[in-house]
Specification:
Mean pLDDT: 89
Shape: elongated
Radius of gyration: 42 Å
Number of helices: 3
Low-confidence stretches: 1-20
Structural class: mainly beta
Distance between the termini: 120 Å
Largest sheet: 25 strands, parallel
């Protein structure tokens, strides 16, 4: 017979009357939202529920005594939010539950159903938010759970007794926020967890005793925010964690005792916010497949006992450990697949311990270590797959220890090290894949150590190094994407950049002592970016840029150079390669009529000119200067393009207009040009090839402003 219970008391009574001999239900039995339901009278004969049994949100239900003959549930058992249910004795004969068992939000429930013969759960076990539950007695014969076991938010739960026979959990074991739980009594038979094991937020838990037979965790292991946890005693036999191992924010935890047999962590090892003074109990670990993070362990004094660790698959991060003074115990480490970050460790004065590391897959960062004196310990490092970042180490004087480093695939950044006086140990570096940034190192006088760099694929930034006097160490540098020289007060010239032939952009700014651009003598091309020369108080002119012939469609920005008098040096840049010009706020600048500027003013490009001396205070003033020989250096070539014709015909000229006073006119061989009677024409220079003829009719006038 097939019957459905829809959750009405009157309907249950009807079923009982109709089924005096009804022993099984081939579908679901669901009893929920029955406000008047006090007990389950009428269901005494039921022994079998083919699918699931749900008893939920019956606010006055007090007991389950009337289903005490039930032995089999083919699907799930769900006891949920029955606030008056004080016990579940009526389920004591159930021998098999094919799905999951969920017992949650039953505020008055003090104990679980006293199952007499239940040995197996087909899916998961959830025991959550039962405010009065004190123990798990009733599950005493259960030996395995195929999926998760979640025991969470039961504030009075004092013991896990009742789980004593469980040897295997096929999913996650979560013990979370059971604030009266002091020990893990009841888990003594557990050998393996196929998913994650998490022990989180159990305020009274003091140790992990009773996990002494646990051998492996196939997923992650998380021990977090257990305010009273003092040790990990109980993990004596744990040998492997195939996922991540996280020990986080257990403020009383001062020992990892009993982890002596742990050899392998397949994922990450994350230790943070604990009271640990040493990690010596982890000295058997030889392999970490993911990252290794040690953060904010303020009592940790050393990392001295990791001699067996040879491989970290991802990164190592040692950050914010205020008592840490040495990391010697990493001397067996050879291969780091990701990055190494050693930062904000206020007692660390050296990084000896990394001497066997020869390659780092990602970046290396050493930063914010206030008493770090040196980086010796990286002696074998030859390759960094990402960037090398050394910053904010206030008493670091030199970089001794990286003398074998050759390749940096990312960027090289050395910044905010105020007493650093030498980059000499970088002299083997011959490749930087991205940027080079040397900034805010106030004691650095030169860049010796960068002598072997032939190019920089990204930008070269040299900024705010107050004592820097010379760039001579960059003599092999042939190209870089951007050249940025900013705020170096002692720098007087750019000698050392003499091999540089092309860049995408140049910015030379706020260098108070720079009086010349000597050093850029070989620079020919700024390929599409801007040429910015601003706020260099001692710079007089642009001498040193004579080889520059193109801005690649970029912008010229000359501003705020207090001593600048002339733009001499910027003579040979093709006007058509400039998109716009800014010539502003240089109070001593009076001569701007150099060849390139005059040529640009003959185009339709944008101009922003002002704040300079007369003669260079507007575009019109510069144009007038450009008409005066010999100051005018126009290079606009207007070429005769037909065989024979009159000068005053627009279509006869290559530029699409009749020659002006600022054009250089070229008449090629074979051409016959006639200046019509009574007409007046002009040009800046005139070049007549052999075999060409220029005729002037009666009364015509030709003015060549700068004849040879």
């Amino acid at each position: 017979m097939r019957a459905y219970f829809l959750g009405l008391v009157i309907f249950i009574a009807t079923i009982h009357a109709a089924c005096q001999s009804c022993f099984s239900i081939n579908g679901y039995l669901s009893l929920f939202d029955n406000l008047s339901l006090v007990d389950l009278k009428g269901l005494e004969s039921i022994t079998w529920v083919q699918q699931s049994l749900t008893i939920a949100r019956n606010i006055n239900l007090r007991n389950l005594d009337s289903i005490s003959n039930l032995t089999y549930i083919g699907g799930d058992l769900d006891l949920d939010e029955n606030p008056s249910l004080a016990n579940a004795f009526g389920l004591n004969q159930v021998e098999s539950i094919g799905g999951w068992m969920q017992i949650r939000r039953n505020a008055s429930l003090k104990s679980l159903p006293p199952f007499e013969d239940l040995i197996h759960l087909g899916r998961y076990l959830i025991i959550n938010n039962n405010d009065s539950l004190r123990h798990l007695n009733g599950l005493n014969d259960l030996d395995s759970v195929c999926e998760d076991v979640l025991i969470q938010h039961n504030p009075l739960l004092e013991t896990l007794c009742g789980l004593n026979k469980i040897t295997f959990i096929g999913g996650t074991l979560s013990l979370q926020t059971n604030n009266s739980l002091m020990y893990l009594n009841g888990l003594g038979s557990l050998r393996s967890v196929a998913g994650t094991l998490e022990v989180v937020g159990n305020a009274s838990l003091e140790s992990l005793q009773n996990l002494e037979n646990l051998d492996s965790v196939e997923g992650n292991m998380v021990i977090r925010t257990n305010a009273s946890l003092q040790s990990l005693e109980g993990l004596d036999k744990l040998r492997s964690i195939n996922g991540n191992f996280s020990i986080l924010n257990n403020i009383m935890l001062d020992s990892l005792k009993t982890l002596l047999h742990l050899k392998k962590i397949g994922g990450n090892l994350h230790i943070a916010g604990n009271g640990l003074m040493t990690l010596k109990e982890l000295d058997s670990i030889s392999y970490i497949g993911g990252f290794w993070r040690i953060h904010d362990c303020d009592s940790l004094t050393d990392i001295n006992d990791f001699g067996n660790l040879s491989t970290v698959g991802s990164y190592i991060s040692v950050v914010g450990n205020q008592s840490l003074n040495q990391i010697d115990g990493l001397n067996g480490l050879q291969d780091v697949g990701g990055y190494i970050s050693i930062s904000n460790n206020s007692s660390l004065d050296n990084i000896v311990g990394l001497q066997e590391v020869d390659s780092i897959g990602s970046f290396m960062q050493v930063s914010d270590n206030p008493i770090l004196q040196g980086i010796a310990g990286l002696n074998n490092l030859s390759y960094i797959g990402g960037s090398l970042i050394i910053e904010d180490n206030p008493i670091l004087e030199a970089l001794d220890g990286i003398q074998n480093l050759r390749n940096i695939n990312g960027s090289l950044e050395v910044r905010d090290c105020p007493i650093l006086n030498s980059l000499f140990s970088m002299s083997s570096i011959n490749f930087v894949g991205e940027n080079v940034a040397i900034l805010n190192n106030n004691s650095l006088k030169n860049l010796t150590g960068l002598d072997s760099l032939p190019f920089v694929n990204g930008y070269l930034l040299v900024e705010n190094n107050d004592s820097l006097e010379s760039l001579n160490a960059l003599s092999h540098l042939g190209t870089c994407a951007e050249l940025i020289i900013v705020g170096n007060r002692a720098l007087s010239n750019l000698d050392g950049l003499n091999s540089l032939t092309s860049v995408l952009r140049i910015a030379i700014e706020d260098n108070d002592g720079l009086h010349e651009l000597a050093g850029l003598d070989s620079l020919q091309l700024v390929a599409g970016g801007n040429l910015v020369i601003r706020y260099n108080d001692s710079l007089i002119d642009l001498t040193g840029l004579e080889a520059l012939n193109s801005l690649g469609g970029g912008q010229l920005d000359i501003r705020g150079n207090l001593s600048m008098e002339t733009l001499s040096g910027f003579d040979n840049v093709g006007p058509s390669t400039i998109s716009s010009i800014f010539i502003n706020d240089s109070p001593n600048l009076s001569f701007c009529a150099v060849k390139s500027i005059c040529g640009f003013l003959g185009t339709s490009g944008s101009t922003f000119i002002g704040g300079n001396l007369p003669g260079c205070n507007s575009g019109e003033e510069i144009r007038q200067e450009c008409k005066t020989c010999p100051n005018c250096h126009i290079i606009t070539d207007n070429i005769w393009i037909t065989t024979e014709g009159f000068w005053n015909v627009i279509g006869n000229w290559s530029e699409g207009f009749i020659p002006r006073a600022c054009d250089r006119v070229i008449i090629p061989a074979g051409a016959i040009v006639t200046i019509a009677s009574e007409s007046s024409v002009e040009c800046f220079t005139l070049e007549i090839a052999n075999g060409a003829v220029l005729k002037q009719d009666v009364g015509s006038l030709l003015q060549v402003r700068c004849p040879d």
